[in-house]
Write a structure and sequence with these properties.
Helix 1 runs antiparallel to helix 3, helix 3 packs parallel to helix 9 and helix 4 packs parallel to helix 5. The strands form two sheets. Strands 1-7-6-5-4-2-3 form a seven-stranded mixed beta sheet, with helices on both faces. Strands 8-9-11-10 form a four-stranded antiparallel beta sheet, covered by helices on one side. With 388 residues, the protein is α/β, with parallel strands linked by helices. The chain is built from 13 helices and eleven strands. The chain folds into two domains: 248 residues, Aspartate Aminotransferase, domain 2, CATH 3.40.640; 134 residues, Alpha-Beta Complex (Aspartate Aminotransferase, domain 1).
Length: 388
């Protein structure tokens, strides 16, 4: 089935629920068993079926089934947030003495909270690499994981995922990818050599700014057992209501992403022509440094992109942002609403140096009418110029 059909039909089993279209919300901790044999049998099949609330309920399994179908993986593990999906996966794959490579454009909490604090405390060494380069020459004998994000969710640099994955595979290294920006509708990581795919379901799959949820989709039974065991041992499990909302959001993912993409491209092209703007960071734009890779490997672009302004004082940026009517300031993205925040990529780079002539912004194009969004941006740029 095509993806537009999969997102409607996977994870739904009306015959199992009295003909109800949507999987019901199962609130459960304890599961009871009618016989001693059945009770003892669950230990022989860890994490298969309904065993205990922390390991999942039919609501959890419905979301996991649907996400697995979209990615074409072996199985999916649902977790309580995107960051939980990252930290649980890396904890499952790494131990003291191991080495990990991470692209320098990675989601900041992956670097600042998970790799540089939690994993470093556990004796795992992390090195960061140039997103535009290969990894063959920096792999070490103890390298166990390479983690990538393409494009990065602040600077929007594209990685040659297939090249990096091939170099990692040649050394027996596991490749993990954060695919939140593209979702499985716009990029298929397994087809490009990735081993494990992480997505913050909080963002586009849920789509309504009201859910904290993450998924890890693995390619082998061994990976599933490792990641699922780690999640269970750490007590990490998503609530059934969040799984239900994530699954409901998934059903409209395709039509929403189409609008997000259309709005983002319209705004990016408009901003590109503005005198206040130095450059727009959006791989779907011809002329963007990552456009050729995006055009080769991706089937679409989401609504998130960056803007680098010409040099202006911070007070001018504040004047612009403080007066926005439709663009709210908020750290997340992927919901129906438009957002805009200031960013400082230089603070979270170590392998490469970020050089921008002026302040940078991250914009999420929501589902509003693009003419209204452009009018809001125009008024904001006028305030920026006046305060400069």
């Amino acid at each position: 089935m095509k993806k537009d059909t999969l997102i409607i039909h996977r994870g739904r089993h009306p015959k199992d629920h009295h003909g109800i279209v949507n999987p019901p919300v199962y609130h459960a901790s304890t599961m009871v068993f009618p016989t001693l044999a059945e009770y003892e049998d669950k230990a022989k099949k860890p994490f298969e079926g309904v065993q205990y609330g922390r390991a999942g309920t039919p609501t959890t399994f419905a979301l996991e089934e649907a996400v697995t179908a979209l990615y074409g993986g072996h199985k999916t593990i649902a977790l309580s947030s995107g960051l939980a999906a990252i930290s649980v996966t890396l904890t499952a794959l790494l131990k003291s003495g191991d080495h990990m490579l991470i692209a320098d454009n990675i989601y900041a909490p992956t670097r600042k909270r998970v790799a540089d604090v939690l994993l470093a405390r556990a004796g795992v060494e992390t090195a960061y690499f140039d997103p535009g380069a290969g990894i063959k020459d920096i792999l070490q004998p103890q390298t166990r994981v390479v983690m990538v994000e393409s494009p990065g969710s602040v600077t929007f640099e594209m990685l040659d995922v297939a090249k990096i994955a091939a170099e990692a595979k040649a050394a027996g290294v596991t490749v993990v990818m954060d695919n939140t920006w593209a979702t499985p509708l716009f990029f298929q990581p397994f087809e490009h050599g990735v081993d494990i795919v992480i997505e913050a379901v909080t963002k586009y799959i849920s789509g309504h700014a009201d859910v904290m949820l993450g998924t890890v989709t693995v390619s082998t039974p061994e990976q599933f057992q490792s990641v699922k065991f780690t999640a269970n041992a750490l007590g990490n499990c998503p609530g059934p209501d969040d799984c239900y909302l994530g699954l409901r959001g998934l059903r409209t993912l395709s039509v929403r992403l189409e609008r997000h993409q259309r709005n983002a491209l319209r705004l990016a092209e408009w901003l590109q022509a503005r005198p206040e703007v130095d450059c727009v960071l959006y791989p779907a734009l011809p002329g963007d440094p990552g456009h050729e890779i995006w055009k080769r490997d991706f089937t679409g672009a989401s609504g998130l992109f960056g803007v680098v302004l010409k040099e202006v004082p911070k007070a001018a940026v504040a004047a612009m942002l403080d007066g926005m009517e439709l663009f709210a300031m908020g750290d997340s993205w992927g919901g129906y609403e438009s957002l805009m925040i200031p960013t400082d990529p230089a603070k979270v780079r170590t392998a490469t140096e970020w050089r921008g002539p002026g302040p940078s912004l991250r914009i999420h194009a929501g589902l509003e009418d693009p003419d209204d969004l452009i009018e809001d941006l125009e008024q904001g740029l006028k305030r920026l110029t006046k305060a400069s």
